């Protein structure tokens, strides 16, 4: 029986170890690569582009001819005879209409290409963002776990005192309340980490929690404000999409102006009438509609109003991006300044101060209130460092999204980076 219990215990212990060993390791580049590969959105847009490719080819096709075959009996001069005829009608687009229809498909393809470009950047940025959010939430959770361990040792130390005084009881109450609050906080952080992992796993599609080897930052990048603003206004996805819609509306207006000029058909007929005096006939003609009752003025007016609306929308998007860019740039510059205040060297100082407080409290040289206050202040500093890291990363990613930067990893490589994180 004892052997069976030992085997079960070994299996239970071995499972998390094997799960960790089997976890895939992810760097920034592998996160982006995996996210792009696993995205059904990119696959859907690619299929839409293929659909438009075939649609354009179809718009360039010549229309099929119509064939009419007629056979019957006719009487003339008291003589009956057969009559038969063959008619052919070939529809032909009005000059320029087919090319405009193809151009309209090209406009749609251009807009879809912009959507695909935006989707690529959105997937890259969001996969990196949620990786860092999961990293920060996990680090905070591990820090709280370490705090609980320290305070539990302090609690045990107080309980082990031989004499229970009112002061000792009060100290014990303070520690117990602190531990209770930290346990609740730990549960909240565990929930945050789990949610961030699910958001990350939307892109990674992993069966177990991966090992993340991604860097923290010690400083930011110095951008050229004027060049970056010009890039944002000219290359932002929403501005490019508005320009694409404007070009599409121009094509639609040209097509509307051609509506009153109908397509025409070339017709021809050949036949023979054997009633009475037999005769054969052949004719050739042109068939088209006359724009007498409807000259499509309303359709043209509608297209003109649509064009005006698209022009105004483009101006709106340019103004909006200009404002959003300035806000994003200010946030990024502020995050760079915060990196210098809460730099990564503070982690070592926090650990050193905590160890000092532990030793001095055990020696009775500092009071519990001072110890708890210092521990809380150092905890806030630890969380502030992590929050600054996340704020800087998200500010940078937001700036890269607004400017439609495609070489996201290259920009991140240019930032000052330090140690890598690996999930515990």
The residue-averaged pLDDT reads 84
Rg measurement, Å: 38 Å
Q: What composes the largest sheet?
A: 4 strands, antiparallel
- Per DSSP, the total helix count is 11
Structural class of the secondary structure composition? alpha+beta
Helix % is 55-70%
User: So what's the overall shape?
Assistant: elongated
Could you characterize the architecture of this molecule?
This protein has 11 helices and 8 strands. It has helices at 2-22, 28-37, 40-59, 97-159, 166-204, 225-235, 237-258, 297-341, 346-362, 368-402, 408-414, and strands spanning 25-26, 66-76, 79-92, 211-212, 214-219, 264-273, 279-288, 416-421. The strands form 3 sheets. The protein has a 4-stranded antiparallel beta sheet, with no helix packed on it. Strand 2 (66-76) and strand 3 form a beta hairpin. It is elongated. The two termini are 34 Å apart.
């Amino acid at each position: 029986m004892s052997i069976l219990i030992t085997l079960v215990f070994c299996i239970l212990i071995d499972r998390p170890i094997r799960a960790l060993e089997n976890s895939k390791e992810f760097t920034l580049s592998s996160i982006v690569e995996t996210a792009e590969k696993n995205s059904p959105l990119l696959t859907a847009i690619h299929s839409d582009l293929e659909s438009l490719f075939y649609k354009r080819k179809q718009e360039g096709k010549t229309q099929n001819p119509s064939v009419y075959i007629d056979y019957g009996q006719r009487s003339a001069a008291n003589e009956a005879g057969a009559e038969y005829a063959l008619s052919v009608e070939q529809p032909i687009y009005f000059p320029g209409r087919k090319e405009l229809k193809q151009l309209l498909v090209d406009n749609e393809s251009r807009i879809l290409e912009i959507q695909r470009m935006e989707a690529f950047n959105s997937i890259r940025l969001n996969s990196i963002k949620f990786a860092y959010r999961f990293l920060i939430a996990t680090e905070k959770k591990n820090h709280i776990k370490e705090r609980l361990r320290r305070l539990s040792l302090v609690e045990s130390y107080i309980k082990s005192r031989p004499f229970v005084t009112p002061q000792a009881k009060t100290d014990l109450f303070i520690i117990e309340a602190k531990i209770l609050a930290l346990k609740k906080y730990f549960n909240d952080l565990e929930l945050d980490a789990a949610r961030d992992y699910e958001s990350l796993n939307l892109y990674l599609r992993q069966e177990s929690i991966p090992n993340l080897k991604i860097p923290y930052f010690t400083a930011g990048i110095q951008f050229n404000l004027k060049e970056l603003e010009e890039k944002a206004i000219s290359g932002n996805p929403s501005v490019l999409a508005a320009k694409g819609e404007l070009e599409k509306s121009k094509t639609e207006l040209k097509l509307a102006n051609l509506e009153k000029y109908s397509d025409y058909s070339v017709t021809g007929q050949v036949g023979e009438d054997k009633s009475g005096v037999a005769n054969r006939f052949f004719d050739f003609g042109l068939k088209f509609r006359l724009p007498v009752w409807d000259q499509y003025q309303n359709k043209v007016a509608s297209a003109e109003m649509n064009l005006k609306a698209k022009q105004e929308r483009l101006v709106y998007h340019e103004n909006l991006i200009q404002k959003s860019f300035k806000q994003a740039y200010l946030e990024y510059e502020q995050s760079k300044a915060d990196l210098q205040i809460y730099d990564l060297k503070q982690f070592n100082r926090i650990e050193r101060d905590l160890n000092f407080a532990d030793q001095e409290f055990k020696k009775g040289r500092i009071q519990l209130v001072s110890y708890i206050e210092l521990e809380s202040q150092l905890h806030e500093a630890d969380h502030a460092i992590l929050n600054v890291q996340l704020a800087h990363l998200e500010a940078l990613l937001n700036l890269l999204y607004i400017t439609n930067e495609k070489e996201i990893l290259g920009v991140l490589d240019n930032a000052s980076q330090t140690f890598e994180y690996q999930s515990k």
